[in-house]
Amino acid sequence: MAPEADLARLVGLEPDERMLGADLEQLPPSVGQPESLPDSPARRRLVAIGATLTGVSLIGGLALLVLGVVEALSGGSGAVTVAAFVLGALLVGTHWGWVHVAELSANNLESHRNASLLDRRRGWLEEIEPYPRWEVSATTEADGSIAIATVCYRPVVRDEKTFTFEQGEVAREVHSGDEPAATVAERAELVRRQAAADTARERERYEAAHDAYERAVLNDANEEERVAAVRAASEALSEQINSNLRDPPLVE
Questions:
Q1: Cα separations (Å) of 132 from 152, 167, 196?
Q2: Within the chain, where are the H helices?
Q3: What is the mean pLDDT of the chain?
Q4: CA 76 from chain center: how many Å?
Q5: Biggest distance spanned by C-alpha atoms of the chain
Q6: Residue among 193, 192, 160, 187 at smallest CA distance from 174
Q7: What is the reported pLDDT for 134?
Q8: Are 68 and 86 in contact (CB under 8 A)?
Q9: What is this structure's pTM?
């Protein structure tokens, strides 16, 4: 897929809230970190209660099903047999519900206690824009050599309305510990400059696409208008890319 078409698909999407939790490690270091949620003993207690009730419901439901089988085989009361089967099946079939109830209760409790903090975390998340970032790090290997790695944090569509990031190492070079420190430092700085230039280029492309999208889309846009807005974003990206191609690349 052409880069302008790929990036245009991300215009208008919102950062996925999972980037505040499960996807946090995928975020580029340059965007920073959200404020941490305080440890909540009440949340732990609610989750523990939910887990306990889940176990009790499952075990109790299985016991009632076994009781129903025993009653049926021994010719016991039909009413007792049916009641044991129905109640046992109900408990087994709904035992996971306690976990969800506990989780929802804990989330509601935290949303009331940490309302202002949660608002700040969401505000921080909303500032993240979906364009690729390249970041460079240097590490010392066990043998004394120095590795310079470039990692790309690329935005990807998470679902219909949101995006997240995926990271992957795109370049790695290892320099012997015998090389002059100044030479290695100069090379690392050149790689960092290239990463910064690549990131700036993608930011410009995204901003051009986003501006075109904003001009084209209406507050109550229908699907046809949305497609037209994405097309306008793609055209703006193409113009931006063609403009950048006329600039000389950064070389050693």
A1: 7, 10, 11
A2: 3-8, 41-73, 78-94, 97-113, 115-126, 181-216, 223-245
A3: 80
A4: 56
A5: 90
A6: 187
A7: 96
A8: no
A9: 0.61
List pLDDT tens digits, range 158-197.
888 899 999 999 999 999 888 888 898 999 999 999 999 9
Are 146 and 139 spatial neighbours (Cβ–Cβ below 8 Å)? yes
Token duo for residue 8 = 């245009």
Q: Which among 175, 197, 200, 167 has a CA at the least distance from the CA of 29?
A: 167
Token representation of residue 154: 């690329």
52 CB neighbour count, 10 Å cutoff: 12
Q: Which two tokens stand for residue 97?
A: 């519900």
Helix axes 97-113, 41-73, angle to 10 degrees: 160
CB count within 10 Å of CB 95 equals 19
Find tokens 């887990």 and name the residue.
51
| Residue carrying structure tokens 């935005």 | 155
Residue 156 — φ and ψ, nearest 5°? -135, 150
Cα 94 from chain centroid? 30
- Tokens read off for 64: 């009632």
- Looking at this protein, which amino acid is placed at residue 65? L
Determine contact, residues 232/216, Cβ cutoff 8 Å.
Answer: yes
Q: What is the CA radius of gyration of the chain?
A: 28
Q: What is the DSSP letter of 29?
A: G
| Half-sphere CA count of 172, side-chain side, radius 13 A | 9
Residue holding tokens 């974003």?
233
